[in-house]
Amino acid sequence: MLILECPYCGVKAEETELTAGGEAHLKRYGPGSSDDEFEGYLFTRENPMGVHFERWRHSNGCGKWFHAARSTTTLEVFGTYSAQTTEPPQEIKDKISARHPGWSWRDQS
Ligand SMILES: [Zn+2]
Questions:
Q1: Between 107 and 4, the higher pLDDT residue
Q2: pLDDT of residue 109
Q3: Share of the chain above pLDDT 70, in %
Q4: pLDDT tier, 108 (very low <50, low <70, confident <90, very high otherwise)
Q5: Distance CA 73, CA 45 (A)
Q6: Are β-strands 51-57 and 65-71 bridged in parallel, bridged antiparallel, or unpaired?
Q7: Which residues surround ligand 1, an ion (CB under 5 A)?
Q8: Which of 58, 68, 70, 106 could in theory staple to 6 by disulfide, Cβ–Cβ 3.0 to 4.6 A?
Q9: Pick the CATH number of 3-99 from 1.10.10.10, 3.40.50.300, 1.25.40.850, 3.30.2270.10
Q10: How far is the CA of 83 from the centre of ligand 1 (A)?
Q11: Could you tell me the distance, in angstroms and rounded to a whole number, from the CA of residue 63 to the centre of ligand 1?
Q12: Summary mean pLDDT of the chain
């Protein structure tokens, strides 16, 4: 079972206490963007075998949204952090790089 620590209240919550919110760090497109950009924002998602960044809500706890970095193959959790960030904290990126040599954060902005 997936267990994530809520970065706000510190509770180690089981997956049943959380609500999945899909991929994190999406670049949003709005008025003035091209149809292709908006279509990509609405429908295109990564589905990696490995490191993935996701949005989760502590729905049966404090109710706040946060981000989690984890491996989709091993379910190893590299860390959780505030949803009000545009990229993972350096500490989490370092932890991922240590476990997955050659991995690097992709700039989505
Ligand atoms: Zn919480």
A1: 4
A2: 43
A3: 97
A4: very low
A5: 17
A6: antiparallel
A7: 6, 8-9, 58, 61-62
A8: 58
A9: 3.30.2270.10
A10: 12
A11: 6
A12: 93
